[in-house]
C-alpha cells in the first residue's frame, strides 16, 4: 500500500489543574496516512487487504511511537488505536484496520498487553478529529490509566485515504484519584443477580 505520510504527536504534561505530575505524563500518538484500496468499491468488497495491512502497520507505527516516546515497553501504562476513513470509503474499512488484527501486532511488538485496546473508527473529510481512548495494558481495573486525547491531521484523510492511529502513554491521568470497583466486587455483584 502507498503511505502518503506519517505524523507523530508527543505530549508531555507537567501540571494539570494545579497538581504537578511527577514524573510528567508522556503520551504519543502516531499515524499513517495511506491510500484506501477499497475506496469507491461496493459495500461487500473483501476486507482482507486492509486486515493484512493492519498487521504490518501495527508493528511499524508501534516502533515509531516507542522511539518518539522515549520509553520502554515495560514502562507503558496505556494504549489506544483509531482510524479515520475518507469519504470515498466506508466505516467497515476503518473497522477492518483496527479490530481484527491491529491489536495483536501492537502486542507482539511491545510483548505485553492482556486487556482489549480501546479503539474506534469513523468516516470524515480532511481535518476530521478522532478521540484516542487510552486504556490499561495488563490490569483491566486500572481505572487511572483510562484517558483520551483528540488528534487530527489537517489534510487527511482525503476521500480515497485512511488515517490509522496508534498511541501509548507512560503513566496514568495527571492527578488521577478515582477508585472504582475491582474484579472481585464486580464478580460479587454479578453473582448476586443469579440468586433470584
Write a structural description:
By secondary structure, the protein is α+β, with helices and mostly antiparallel strands. The chain has one domain (3-193): 60s Ribosomal Protein L30, Chain: A (2-Layer Sandwich), CATH 3.30.1330.110. It has helices spanning 48-69, 91-98, 102-110, 183-193; strands spanning 3-16, 19-35, 78-85, 119-123, 130-136, 147-151, 161-169. Strands 1, 2, 3, 4, 5, 6 and 7 form a 7-stranded mixed sheet that branches. A hairpin with a 2-residue loop joins strand 1 (3-16) and strand 2 (19-35). The longest helix has 22 residues, at 48-69. The radius of gyration is 18 Å and the shape is globular. The mean pLDDT is 95.
Throw out a few tags for this protein.
196 residues; alpha+beta; 60s Ribosomal Protein L30, Chain: A; seven-stranded mixed sheet; 4 helices; 7 strands; globular
Radius of gyration, whole Å: 18 Å
Q: What is the chain-wise order of helices and strands?
A: EEHEHHEEEEH
Identify the CATH homologous superfamily: BB2672
- CATH top level label: Alpha Beta
- Give the domain tally: 1
| Count of alpha/pi helices | 4
- Provide the residue-averaged pLDDT: 95
Dominant shape: globular
Global structural class: alpha+beta
How would you sum up the major sheet? 7 strands, mixed
Span of the ends, CA to CA: 56 Å
CATH topology: 60s Ribosomal Protein L30, Chain: A
| Low-confidence region ranges | none
What's the architecture, going by CATH?
Answer: 2-Layer Sandwich
In brief:
This protein is of the alpha+beta class.
